[in-house]
Amino acid sequence: MKKIKDNVINLFGDKNNVQNKGVKYSELLEQFMSPFVNEFINTEYIEDIFEFAINAWNFGNMEILLPKGAFESATELIKEKEINIVLLRKMIDYKISNFKEYENFIVDYELNDFKAGEDPVLSIVTQEKEVYLADMMDTLDNEVTEYDFAENYINRSAIILKPQQPFIDWYFNLNPEDELDFEEDIKETNIYLVDDKIDDVEKWLKKKFDKFFMMELDEWCSDKKKWPQKRNYKMFKQWFQVDVSKMLYDLEKQPVLKSE
User: What DSSP string describes 32-51?
Assistant: First the structure.
């Protein structure tokens, strides 16, 4: 991303805000943003400015099209985010007052690389309102809500083990001919679910590590005589990357099955 603290004024301040007679949305967006350029002087990245303005543009379109209750529901999530609500409201009102007839929604944009002495060239991708709203409603229908998470919380913690180089070296010494297959399979990490009431999983793992160590070894070599014999917790941490997650959610409707 590109820093633009000293370039915000230049980006829009030198442009003539001529009434656009066509539907070139790149010019429309720049005209839309121009009155608010001073609001973004302390914004470090140009991408953040454009994303904020595009959101304001699209919210302005939605406020025109949607019933009041539906629009409030669609914008409810932004209240929980760190965003300048006052500025957003001003830009939404400006969109409705001055660009009401331009009903396309902006779904993507692209800026070319900055060149010395030149402003960036902006390209815009839009969708007609019917398509955009249909896609938005599909997204809302499929979106996972906070209630869904709470309802589907699993009372387990997860220990994720990924073999590291010492484990890989051990396996290659035993099976040098399996290098290609092993390299592909080793990308699949193993996840072990344990009681979520374990307060300090790291401390608990120091006592239980060898159980996991043996399960990992057994997966790749069933001959215990070929396993490293003097295993300790320090070796375990060298042989495996260990990650722990205490927040697990099951978002599927069908029950979890355990093989017997």
Answer: HHGGGGGGGTT--BHHHHHH
Examine the pLDDT at 226 and tell me if it is beyond 90. Answer: yes
Reported residue count of the chain is: 260
Query: For the chain, how many helices (H) and strands (E)?
Result: 11, 7
Supply φ then ψ for residue 173, to 5 degrees. Answer: -65, -35
Which DSSP symbol is given to 201? H
Nearest to 163, CA basis, from 224, 234, 236, 230: 236
**Sheet containing 156-163: order of strands:** 190-195, 156-163, 240-245
Buried b (16+ CB within 10 A) or exposed e, 36-60: bbebbeeeeebeebbebbbbbbbbb
The helix (H) or strand (E) run that includes residue 8 is helix 8-13
- Give DSSP secondary structure letters for 67-120: -HHHHHHHHGGGGGSS--HHHHHHHHHHHHHHSTT--PEEEEEEEPPP-TT-PP
The residue with greater pLDDT, 200 or 10, is 200
Q: What is the DSSP letter of 178?
A: G
Asked if 162 contacts 212 with a C-beta cutoff of 8 angstroms, the reply is no
Residue 191 to residue 20: CA distance in whole angstroms: 57
List the beta bridge partners of residue 45: 3
pLDDT (0 to 100) of residue 34 = 92
**From CA 232, how far away is CA 213, in angstroms rounded?**
9
Mean pLDDT of the chain: 78
Report the C-alpha gap between 162 and 242 in whole angstroms.
Answer: 7
Q: Is 156 left (phi over 0), alpha (psi -120 to 50) or beta?
A: beta
